[in-house]
Amino acid sequence: MGPLISTEKLAAMLEGPAPPVVLDVRWRLAGPPGAESYAEGHLPGAVFVDVDSELAAAPGEAGRHPLPEPAELERTLRAAGVTGDRAVVAYDDADGSVAARAWWLLRWAGHTEVAVLDGGYAAWVAEERPVTTTVPDPPEGDIEVRPGGMPVLDADEAARCARAGTLLDARVPERYGGYTEPVDPRAGHIPGAINAPFTAHTDARQRWRDPDDLARHFVGLGVRSDAPVGAYCGSGITASAAVLALEVAGFAQHAGLYTGSWSHWSRDPRRPAATGEEPG
């Protein structure tokens, strides 16, 4: 299974002998809660998983969305019916950047058969595919979370990546440049980081760009196959989409994810912050 799945392929798999586990991870930084959208309608059989409380640990010194403890993540995934030998598909209702967090966590946990629904809930509904308000009661899964399936960066490693390779800042230009900062302690970006907004991974229909197009996009940002590459955002959510997009683009090396991201970096006043449009 590739990192993306079409609505057509998912619909066929759901009717087949081995349907995937489907996770609804709708979430918005400023609300309303994704659980409300899930209650109004979701894909048949989809289980809602909360980004804030289930796909992240409590906010604190490690940032706004730290990695969950492996045992806690395992309990969440098992409750959703995730097994070690069954594919998983995650979706949101925007551009896939939130669903990418679930994709990344499952890959980090050692599960390789996981994909993001291309076009998400909006594409599914636009094609008049079935939705429901019935909340499923899946059988307990048996997945064993084994961290290490995807590379993780800490603050020092992110700083080195920005100098030795390419560190992608997936936030919008206004936050990268330090012109505004609505949620974190300081404005700006990690010195040397390149602005690569997560919104550039999809087209006007919020469908993911094709692999060759994404490859040209990242090469234009300075990504090279012979140098380290990492990604961060505000709190480690949308930067997951950069990691996914790089895989779609065909880069063999998995990008490191600075999971604490700017919400962690900016907490320490000793860490420098660059401002403006240039990496610094």
Automatic annotation (TrEMBL):
Rhodanese domain mapped to chain residues: 16-133, 161-274
InterPro entries named among the record's database cross-references: Rhodanese-like_dom, Rhodanese-like_dom_sf, Thiosulphate_STrfase_CS, TST/MPST-like
Transferase among keywords: yes
Keywords assigned by UniProt, alphabetized: Repeat, Transferase
Single Gene Ontology MF annotation: thiosulfate-cyanide sulfurtransferase activity
Protein's UniProt name: Sulfurtransferase
